[in-house]
Each structure stands twice: as structure tokens, then as C-alpha cells.
Design goal:
Pfam families: Response_reg (PF00072). The protein has 239 residues and is of the alpha/beta class. The protein is built from nine helices and seven strands; from the N terminus they run E-H-E-H-E-E-E-H-E-H-E-H-H-H-H-H. The chain has two domains: 119 residues, Response regulator (Rossmann fold, 3-Layer(aba) Sandwich); 71 residues, no CATH class.
Length: 239
């Protein structure tokens, strides 16, 4: 069953809502990053559905085919590159496949897997988001004539960041074995970078660099401090 007939939108895109009528599948494990994508889709006229892992994404794709798939490369049950490869080879193909990651070096891997484009986290610019998708659409699926290029910056709800931090603590409750710590390091590094939380991003990076449980306690201390203060994110100055 197809959610849309190929790339044909149910309603034609407009200059102010260039993705009107399209459906975006966001395969993203971070609630904070997902909230940013949701707001961008809302501003652009697109509907969004979210999958937080490869397994969930494959369930979605058994039911419908989105216009656009935005796939995080670091997922809890594998690499998003695997899903990109599958979607690129599928018939019919999802119209636009975009990879996303906080690691700029991952772009080459994504493009080799078959992605049409790449979004480097944090994704803040509405214009960058829209143009990354629109440049890969057929001409007859874009707005007629020039469309507005906005300088709007998207700021997700800080409560979504709180959800991500609580998720990390829940994962640590399950154990401190190497696979868990490796996933937490890449997940939290990306999430903290997206929230411009430099101190926590550094702690998460240190977890991977030291490759040991001794780096867990300082990281947990920073997380608990943020949760205790109800995460009053003021902009870009968390310590």
C-alpha cells in the first residue's frame, strides 16, 4: 500500500509551503532531533511520521511509501546506511532519500549507500532543510516559480532534549557493557551537539575515547544536573 501515488502530492506545493502534500518518514532515535524535523515539516506543509529504529522503519515501509525518507546513520539496532541501500534498490524507489548525522565524515558513506543528499546535524535552518529535499525532486513536483527562501531557525522544545537524557539513563540502568556504551556515546554526542550543549557533548565523546566505565560517572553527573534544573536551556551555554 502506498501512502502517496509515487511522488504525486495530494495537494500541490505552494511557494510558501513547498512540501505541501508530501509525507516524510523520519528514521531518528533522538526525540530532540525528531522534534526539529517535525517543526520543519510543519512549516513546509509536509506530514511526518517517525520511526526510532530500523525495525520500526521497516514496519512503516510495509504499510506505506513516503515521498521522502530522512534517515539517521546511527540507530540503536544498526546503521541507517543499511536502510538507505535497501530503499535505493527498491522498486518503486522512495522519491528522495536523505541521510543525516552529526559526523560530517559520514556523508561519503551515506552517498555510497544510495542517499540523494545529506543533512549535517544540528539541522536548524528551515531553508537548508527545504532545499536539500527540493533539489532532488522532479521539476513537476516543486512549487511553480520561485519559492520563498527563509532565514528562519528552528528551535525544538527543550523537553524533547530532556526525554533524550532520560533515555540515556534508562539505557545505563540495563548495564555498562561495551555495545551499550558505544551506542550511548554516539547518540548523546549527536543530541548534545544539536542542543549546543558543549560540555555534555565532550563528556559523551570522552566516553568513546576512553572506552571505559570510568567516563560514565562524569557524564551521568552532567545529565542529572540538567534534569534537576528542569533543563532551563537558555540558548547555547550549558555547562
Amino acid at each position: 500500500m502506498s501512502d502517496l501515488d509515487g511522488l504525486a502530492p495530494q495537494r500541490a506545493p505552494t511557494n510558501s509551503r513547498p512540501l505541501l502534500g508530501m509525507t516524510v518518514l523520519a528514521v531518528e532515535d533522538s526525540r530532540y532531533a525528531s522534534e526539529a524535523l517535525r517543526l520543519m515539516c510543519l512549516r513546509s506543509g509536509a506530514r511526518i511520521r517517525r520511526a526510532d529504529c530500523l525495525r520500526s522503519a521497516r514496519r512503516h515501509l510495509q504499510v506505506y511509501r513516503p515521498s521522502v525518507a530522512i534517515i539517521d546513520l546511527g540507530l540503536p539496532d544498526g546503521s541507517g546506511a543499511e536502510l538507505i541501500e535497501d530503499l535505493d534498490r527498491a522498486t518503486p524507489r522512495v522519491g528522495v532519500i536523505i541521510a543525516t548525522s552529526g559526523d560530517a565524515g559520514a556523508e561519503a558513506t551515506a552517498l555510497r549507500a544510495g542517499a540523494d543528499g545529506f543533512l549535517l546535524k544540528p539541522v536548524e535552518s528551515l531553508s537548508t532543510f527545504q532545499q536539500q529535499i527540493l533539489r532532488h525532486l522532479p521539476a513537476d513536483r516543486r512549487p511553480n516559480g520561485p519559492y520563498a527562501i527563509t532565514d528562519e531557525v528552528i528551535s525544538p522544545d527543550p523537553l524533547a532534549y530532556r526525554d533524550d537524557l532520560e533515555h540515556v539513563l534508562n539505557l545505563l540502568d540495563g548495564g555498562h557493557d561495551a555495545p551499550v556504551l558505544s551506542y550511548i556515546s554516539q547518540f548523546l554526542t549527536g543530541v548534545a551537539q544539536s542542543a549546543f550543549d558543549g560540555a555534555l557533548a565532550e563528556a559523551a565523546t570522552k566516553l568513546a575515547r576512553d572506552n571505559g566505565a570510568e567516563a560514565v560517572a562524569p557524564m551521568v553527573g552532567l545529565i542529572e544536573k540538567r534534569l534537576e534544573t528542569r533543563l532551563a536551556i537558555s540558548g547555547r551555554a550549558l555547562t
